Design the sequence.
């Protein structure tokens, strides 16, 4: 419930868009099907993600309204751990929201936030929404981009530009999940601190070992396993004839 | 997309609560897993639901913000077909929202809307939220209640009061779904017009036949089949290694 409150607060302060509330609801359903916990499957993806970020020349964390509302502090911590830049990138772009998000990130300890206003002067090809606008000193120059809660369009475009994309997405069937280099099927609130811990631990490893760890990861296979886990859980629940209480409070 | 717009408009006009946007998002995920279509499973439940409503002494349709924003016209049509009352019933109760919803229903052609303000003077036991407040001439007197998009608490309480409860819920595992007498696992936007058509068709049947149709329906079994359908679809999609585009536009 605390997560939901953070999001609604973010909505009230102009950080989260109304579409962001809908998107969060969609995520909640998948989280519920996953059992609201970080699976071994997600941990495997996190290891590959950490290895990828630690061996990148210029990693960037792309932040939208929901990510900022839910995990601003965690994103700043991870950025410091992996020496990454932070860039604001919105679907429903407005200077007001960009500034609100940048403020939230700075309050959370970020030294620099890219992508706000005129800084987003570059465009990535084949993306229709305002999300195509990126910072030439941020995402455009990056070789690895962490995109928590991203849209499929942009993930595909970034992959086409030969960037490594790490997605955090609760829906293993989404285009984002299926297009990314590494997909962490987990709730951002649980995934970010764990990913940071893993990055801290792997930081001292040889780059060669990390590169091998990243390149040996099979994202399609891992996603397929995530779907199987949901399936198994659904079958067990159906057999028990029990209900799940997590999503009970529709509150509508 | 049109559905989403209707909901966001409802939010902007004070009909839908912010929690309603989250709840709708949760529903979208389940709808996506169902393939965004009315299944044979849902049709089976609709037949039992129509039979139940047509043989009820006093059926009532319970309306919340989301239901009003998405299907006001359809609910009025069904109410006329089955001779049911319409009652506003909210989790986040406020006179302002009640009036906004009642206005929407009246614009959609409702002759009378129960449950607004002081009319909700009765309470149903064991429900903590403001949803326990009901209209003594509406839900309290009803023997059958149609609760589209309802919370589990109240569904259970109504069933305990020996009322027949018909739920429309996209999540077959929810407490609402598992507690109701008949659960239609479908999107309210698709379910309401179809349910109305079925009611129109069954209206001329003998009451005895309708009673048999209603009593022979096994809700637990039907829900278990709905879960199996989702499972089968997930397995097929995972095997294909394809992504689903429906939920792509996270727009956050």
Sequence:
């Amino acid at each position: 419930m605390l997560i939901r409150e953070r999001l609604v607060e973010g909505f009230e302060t102009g950080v989260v868009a109304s579409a962001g509330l809908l998107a969060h609801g969609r995520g909640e359903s998948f989280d519920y099907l996953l059992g609201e916990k970080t699976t071994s499957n997600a941990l495997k993806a996190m290891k590959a993600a950490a290895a990828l970020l630690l061996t990148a020349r210029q990693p960037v964390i792309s932040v939208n309204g929901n990510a900022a509302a839910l995990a601003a502090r965690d994103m700043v911590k991870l950025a410091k751990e992996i020496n990454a830049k932070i860039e604001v990138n919105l679907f429903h772009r407005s200077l007001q929201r960009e500034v609100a998000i940048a403020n939230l990130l700075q309050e959370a300890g970020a030294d620099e936030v890219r992508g706000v206003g005129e800084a987003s002067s570059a465009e990535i090809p084949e993306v229709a929404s305002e999300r195509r606008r990126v910072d030439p000193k941020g995402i455009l120059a990056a070789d690895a981009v962490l995109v928590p809660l991203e849209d499929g369009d942009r993930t595909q475009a970034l992959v086409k530009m030969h960037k490594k994309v790490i997605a955090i997405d609760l829906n293993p069937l989404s285009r984002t999940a299926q297009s990314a280099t590494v997909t962490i099927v987990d709730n951002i609130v649980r995934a970010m601190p764990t990913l940071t811990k893993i990055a801290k631990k792997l930081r001292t490893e040889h780059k060669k070992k990390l590169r091998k760890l990243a390149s040996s990861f099979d994202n399609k296979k891992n996603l397929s396993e995530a779907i199987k886990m949901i399936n198994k859980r659904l079958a067990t629940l159906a057999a028990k004839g029990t209900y799940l209480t997590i999503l009970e409070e529709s509150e509508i």
